[in-house]
Every structure is written in C-alpha cells, then in structure tokens.
Amino acid sequence: MTDLSHLAQPGAEIAVRVTPRASRNAVIVEEGAIRVYVTVVPEDGKANAAVVKLLAKALGIARSRLVLVRGATSRDKLFRVD
C-alpha cells in the first residue's frame, strides 16, 4: 500500500484516476498522478465506496474525512480532506 499521509492536510484536494473491475485493490502513484484500482463493479456506488476506503487507508485518515467533490460517475475523481 502506498503511503500518502503527507497529503492528508485539512482542505487538501486529491485528484485520482479509478480503474474498476481490476484484478486487485491498490493505490499507486504513477508519474505524479494517483491511481486507485478496485475489484468491485461500478454500480450503485460500490466502486466509489471501495475507493474511499482504500484512499482513506493510504492517507491514514478516517473514511468520514474524505468528501467526494467531483466525479461520482466518472473515472477521474476529486476528493477533499475535511
């Protein structure tokens, strides 16, 4: 698991690219961009919930502190740390 705790500042906005139906769950930093791979399907918010869980774990914060600002139905998402 990638350690992103340095990004966990209140008010910070974190842009991620999500790949649903991946072979494994992972958070990876590639070329300065954060990519989140989840194994669940993107229906009924299941993939978004999995992304929040993985990203919060990588940031070392509670899931309730992550707010999805933009991209609920997109692969490109923007989260804010509250």
Automatic annotation (TrEMBL):
Pfam families: DUF167. NCBIfam families: DUF167 family protein (TIGR00251). HAMAP family: UPF0235. Belongs to the UPF0235 family. This is UPF0235 protein ACHFJ0_21730. It comes from Paracoccus broussonetiae subsp. drimophilus.
